[in-house]
Amino acid sequence: MAEKETKIEYNSSVEKILSLSEKIKNGEQIALAKAITLIENEPELIFHVEAHWNEVLKTRTSHIVGFTGSPGAGKSTLTDAYVAKLRVQNRKVGIIAVDPSSPFTGGALLGDRIRMKRHFTDDNVFIRSMGSRGNVGGLNDAVFGVITLYKLYGFDYIIIETVGAGQSEIDIAYVADSVVLVLSPAAGDEIQLMKAGIMEIADVFVINKSDMEGAHVLKTNLEMVLQFSESSKPIILTVATSGKGIEELYIEIEKHKDRLHGSGEINERLKRRIKKHAETLVLKKISKVLSTENIDESLMVYDLIDRVIDNLCEVYNADLKSKEV
Ligand SMILES: Nc1nc2c(ncn2[C@@H]2O[C@H](COP(=O)(O)OP(=O)(O)O)[C@@H](O)[C@H]2O)c(=O)[nH]1
Ligand SMILES: [Mg+2]
Questions:
Q1: Most CB within 10 Å of its CB: which of 85, 147, 188, 267?
Q2: How confident is residue 1, by pLDDT bands cut at 50, 70 and 90?
Q3: CA 278–ligand 2 middle distance (angstroms)
């Protein structure tokens, strides 16, 4: 009996997400907000959307930009200014703000809303905040699903803001096409330069709050750290609050985007994202099954793994085909 009820509930959420996805494709933001809530509760639902809209999604080329850095470095202010620049270019932008602490209460969300408020009445901009708590890796696994929903909506750019605290900072590299590391001369950010992995994941460096003392010293130190790496990466000085350096930031992200497409590395980034998504879901499922010992649950895990492998094969095959041509 209980089993039957679960099944009915499962089917109805599949129907719900598919009907919402139809509306999302038609540009309805309310449907988008509702679908995200569904995905947050049941991240696997996104597979139904991906299967149903496979052909449409393949044609979407949303560029995913990650902003990471210490709390207070100016990521939200910078995002807001960058979004304004993208809007001038008539680009549609979807934003995901990942807050590692309290998901839907507290000052962080309110603060982000206030800082980004000029875009709130704009149909071509959509902002969603989500928590990262209680996840196996650093990133909220719903992020991957939200990316798919944003692509379906047709955003040209998807911006993900993650706070540079632990794993989520590194994980952004598995999700974003272009990673922007935001540093500021505020006390403590020199430490960022010492952290293993951070220098490698960044594609563009921003030294924000360059109106404050210490920005140039920070830049010199960053250049010193970077001279040991083989690739040259841009360092941009910005004042997010006044818009200084935003044009340059925009240009450098465009250049990076063009390089990714020119070299075909964009496909590698896509594969990396799919693998990370699979890993996140599989780890979560496995840890759940291990703790419940429920046979139906374990069958679901096998089913999920099958679907993930199918998905990966499809990506690889598509890639191979494109190389044949
Ligand atoms: N002086 C100065 N303050 C800034 C600059 N950018 C952001 N801020 C301020 O720094 C604080 C933190 O900014 P916020 O965007 O919330 O940082 P986040 O935590 O990284 O998202 C806010 O009070 C901003 O107004 C800047 O370039 N110069
Ligand atoms: Mg912020």
A1: 147
A2: very low
A3: 27
